[in-house]
Amino acid sequence: MSTFLHDPDDIDETTSKVIAELLIEDIDNTASARKARADALLLDNELAFSLQRELCETTVQSMNDYNVLVQSLDDPIDADHRGSNVAEIVKQAADDDMRAALFLLNEGQLPPLSASQRFVLDQSFSGR
Q1: pTM of the model
Q2: For the chain, which has fewer Cβ within 10 Å, the N-terminal or C-terminal residue?
Q3: pLDDT class of 2 with cuts at 50, 70, 90
Q4: Which among 89, 29, 22 has a CA at the least distance from the CA of 57?
Q5: How far is CA 58 from CA 44, 45, 52, 62, in A?
Q6: Sequence-ordered list of residues with C-beta below 8 angstroms from that of 4, at least 6 positions apart, any chain
Q7: Residue 85 near residue 56, CB atoms below 8 Å
Q8: Please, what's the b/e burial string for 91-126 (b: 16 or more CB within 10 A of its CB; e: otherwise)?
């Protein structure tokens, strides 16, 4: 990402993006005042404005791309984490089922359901 507008030690990314967008707006406003000279050669300051605008646009686009990339990576990581938690709960429920079966065999009655067993039996989890 460009260091032109975003220095993590100075300002946050959102502020940096707003600054870049405001700069683009200011450049466009300045350029529209000079549109009457469209057939003339670019003056040095007009060329500088044009290059500055390109740099700001690139900065804003890079920030947008970065945010999309981060989000696209976060979604599968979050889903994987949730899946991992569910897998652990299901394994715990299976272990609890085995202990309950042994308890039933030895004591003649079932113990109360564990939290993991209740989770597995929950309608929202089992799809009933």
Answers
A1: 0.46
A2: C
A3: very low
A4: 22
A5: 21, 20, 10, 6
A6: 55, 59
A7: no
A8: ebbeebeeebeeeeeeeeeeeeebebbebbeeeeee
